[in-house]
């Protein structure tokens, strides 16, 4: 037997609020991961350029900054 789920107005408001909260925080987590990936990419590019230019002090500084 299948029962249809009927929600009251208060339940609908609560469910809407819960989904909005979840969507907002999931979006923030995705933005944090994207920011981390972008910063790692730029740091690796800077490290590669510094190492290629034989500027080892800058290369070491970039490595230490990533710790």
Automatic annotation (TrEMBL):
<protein>
    <submittedName>
        <fullName>Uncharacterized protein</fullName>
    </submittedName>
</protein>
């Amino acid at each position: 037997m299948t029962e249809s789920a009927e929600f009251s107005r208060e339940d609908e408001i609560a469910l809407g609020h819960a989904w909005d909260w979840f969507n907002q925080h999931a979006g923030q987590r995705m933005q944090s991961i994207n920011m981390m990936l972008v910063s790692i990419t730029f740091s690796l590019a800077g490290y590669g350029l510094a190492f290629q230019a034989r500027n080892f002090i800058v290369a070491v500084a970039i490595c230490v900054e990533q710790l």
